[in-house]
């Protein structure tokens, strides 16, 4: 979510994500997008630099918001969850593995009796900075499309 506008994945990362979804035949209207944290104080240095809320959430912010995220997931009962980026993947899976090790394979998200298949991949903002990761992200999206086609 954007701290300023309330939109999930605003700006260039959101535009890239829309193109990624379209490449596998989906649109934002067909998926639910949420952030690991809903809001956080903007850092003065980031605001001055025009970055706003582009920083990674702190462990305290993730911990404070986790119960809300888990409740939201239980209420929606998705069959598949795609964790965009390291913060989302670590929040949902626990542990401290880097996104490069987490991505590329299906894992199980479990919260009590509820479970869903979870695929971690790179955050679109990371793909804009490191274009060499786009091939791996594309492989992840093909895996998502294959899983959705199994329904």
If you had to describe this structure to a student in words, what would you say it looks like?
By secondary structure, the chain is of the alpha+beta class. The protein has helices spanning 11-23, 44-48, 59-76, 86-93, 99-102, 124-129, 134-149, and strands at 80-84, 106-111, 114-121. The chain is built from seven helices and three strands; from the N terminus they run H-H-H-E-H-H-E-E-H-H. Strands 1-3-2 form a three-stranded mixed sheet. Residues 46-52 have low confidence and may be disordered.
Main attributes of the structure:
single chain; 151 residues; alpha+beta; Uracil-DNA Glycosylase, subunit E; 3 strands; globular
Entry summary:
The radius of gyration is 15 Å and the shape is globular.
* Overall number of structural domains: 1
Secondary-structure-derived class: alpha+beta
- Shape, please? globular
Order of helices and strands: HHHEHHEEHH
Q: Tell me the fraction of residues in β-strands, as a range.
A: 5-15%
CATH superfamily: Uracil-DNA glycosylase-like domain
Average pLDDT, rounded to a whole number, is 85
Share of helix, binned: 40-55%
CATH topology: Uracil-DNA Glycosylase, subunit E
């Amino acid at each position: 979510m954007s701290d300023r506008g309330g939109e999930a994945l605003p700006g260039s990362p959101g535009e890239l994500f829309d193109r990624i979804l379209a490449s596998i035949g989906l649109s934002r209207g067909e998926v639910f997008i949420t952030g690991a944290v809903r809001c956080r104080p903007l850092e003065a240095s980031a605001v001055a630099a025009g970055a706003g809320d582009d920083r990674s959430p702190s462990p305290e912010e993730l911990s404070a918001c986790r119960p809300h995220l888990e409740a939201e997931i239980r209420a929606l009962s998705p069959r598949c969850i795609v964790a965009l980026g390291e913060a989302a993947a670590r929040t949902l899976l626990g542990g401290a593995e880097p996104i490069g090790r987490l991505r590329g394979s299906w894992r199980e998200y479990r919260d009590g009796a509820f479970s869903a298949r979870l695929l971690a991949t790179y955050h679109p903002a990371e793909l804009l900075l490191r274009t060499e990761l786009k091939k791996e992200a594309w492989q992840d999206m093909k895996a998502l499309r294959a899983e959705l086609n199994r329904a």
